[in-house]
Amino acid sequence: MPEKPVAVVLLSGGLDSATTLAAAQKEGFVCHTLSFDYGQRHYHELAASEKISRVLGAADHQVVRLDLRSIGGSALTSDIDVPKEKKEETEAATDIPSTYVPARNTIFLSIALARAEVLGAADIFIGVNAVDYSGYPDCRPEYIRAFEHMANLATKISVQGKQRIRIRAPLLHLSKSEIIKKGAYLKVDFSMTHSCYDPSPEGRPCGRCDSCRLRAKGFKEAGISDPAS
Amino acid sequence: MPEKPVAVVLLSGGLDSATTLAAAQKEGFVCHTLSFDYGQRHYHELAASEKISRVLGAADHQVVRLDLRSIGGSALTSDIDVPKEKKEETEAATDIPSTYVPARNTIFLSIALARAEVLGAADIFIGVNAVDYSGYPDCRPEYIRAFEHMANLATKISVQGKQRIRIRAPLLHLSKSEIIKKGAYLKVDFSMTHSCYDPSPEGRPCGRCDSCRLRAKGFKEAGISDPAS
User: Inter-chain contact B117–A64, Cβ cutoff 8 Å?
Assistant: First the structure.
């Protein structure tokens, strides 16, 4: 029997990355999950990541400490308030919200690339999507393609011609409700997942931030009830 | 008088990055330096970075903690021995040495990109060079170009069309002796710089690792004596 291929899967504790992990497992990869302790407000996502990783049967789960608070610039890692309720009428739809963490996906993918190189993995999975992407520039298909191109020039395994790095974003073109349907089909237990940008100290979702509202809308459109709400 | 442009400069404490900082200062940038505490063996480089930054007049110096030891895979961050003396005859010249840290420049540039975005800086300086580059894939011109392309798709400032990110590698096509001559011309005090991959606990260079030997050869060819040896 041929050896199973190895993948690194970025895990945030949210339903998108949980569904991404389930998709990678379904494809037959031995999955090594990676999460970041980057000084985020929503620290509860780390506990969720660990649980999701274990329940879905990943080979291992690693948490990398990285002090992004010292970089600043985002409502998720600094004292800027997390925006609640609907956007102001004056705010253009193309505006990038204050919850954007500068270069976050680039940093996370870079560290995943290092991990992939150490493991000899050619596939890196990330749960970004470009439909309900909240206006983050690093969730677009052209960004993912550019990172993949760079990754293949950056690393020992690709330069030595052993294998080509692939950045896999299976949710890229799905809406939130389609992601929820896909996750349900893959039997992801959404009660383990955590989406809120600004939960209570006990980890309860606020129900009002962009991420909570997008999640509620997605479940409603999918016709599925959210076990975490 | 127009405002001075702002740059982020990656600083390792070695002579290459010190010369890069001096070059950026000479070009008139307000320089914000960035170093990493990534579990490296050669911890003394952090003290050197702080001093270089201060003496050369950078606007500020930031050290980001990042646990690359948990990723592993390099002699610089794990228990693999740092290679000493000449390479074995059996080792091909194209081999990538064990001191290569997986995806290190990609990780460092990604965090510099986040810092640049927060500061509103368009220029990121890195002291890589492709001549005496020890076979690291992430020191080649095509890699730097690919990172720059990706960076311009990744970030808010570039997507909003405000400015284009530039990855500046002023030493890219210089040999070690040319870098030393350039540094001397820019009045860099090389006694502050630190190159050894495996110094003594007191910070004395071993004189035998790749980096020490490359430095010694560079000073010899430049006809300059090394004040740090």
Answer: no
All structural domains of chain A with their residue ranges? 6-222
CA distance A207 to chain B (A): 27
**pLDDT value of position A77:** 57
Strands of the sheet with B123-125, listed across from one edge? B60-65, B30-37, B6-10, B123-125, B166-168
Whole-model pTM: value is 0.87
With contacts defined as CB-CB under 8 Å, which chain A residues touch B117?
73, 102-103
Is A155–B137 a contact, with Cβ atoms under 8 angstroms apart?
yes
Chain B residue with the nearest C-alpha to that of A102: B114
- Give the integer Cα–Cα distance in Å for A142 and A163: 22
Contact A68, B114 (CB under 8 A): yes
CA–CA min distance A143, chain B (Å) = 5
Hey, are the CB atoms on B153 and A142 less than 8 Å from each other?
yes
Q: What is the CATH number of domain A6-222?
A: 3.40.50.620
Best B71, B78, B80, B126 member to test A by mutation, with max A CBs in 10 Å, is B71
Question: Which pLDDT value is given to residue B32?
Answer: 97
Phi, psi of A26 (to 5 degrees): -60, -35
Q: Which residue would you say has higher pLDDT here, A93 or B228?
A: B228
Contacts of A188 (CB under 8 A, 6+ apart): A15, A18, A19, A22, A56
Cβ contacts (< 8 Å) between A62 and chain B: which residues?
A: 70
Q: What is the number of other CB atoms lying within 10 angstroms of the CB of residue B209?
A: 23
Q: Which positions in chain B touch A141 (Cβ < 8 Å)?
A: none
Q: Could you read off the pLDDT of B31-42 as tens digits, one per residue?
A: 999 999 877 655
In angstroms, the CA B196 to CA A144 distance is 36
Cross-sheet strand order for the sheet of A166-168:
A60-65, A30-37, A6-10, A123-125, A166-168
Neighbours of B47 (CB within 10 A): 13
Kindly report the average pLDDT of chain A as a whole number. 84
Residue A16 is predicted with a pLDDT of 95
Chain B hits for A146, CB-CB cut-off 8 Å, are 146, 149-150, 153-154
CB contact under 8 A, A153 and B160: no
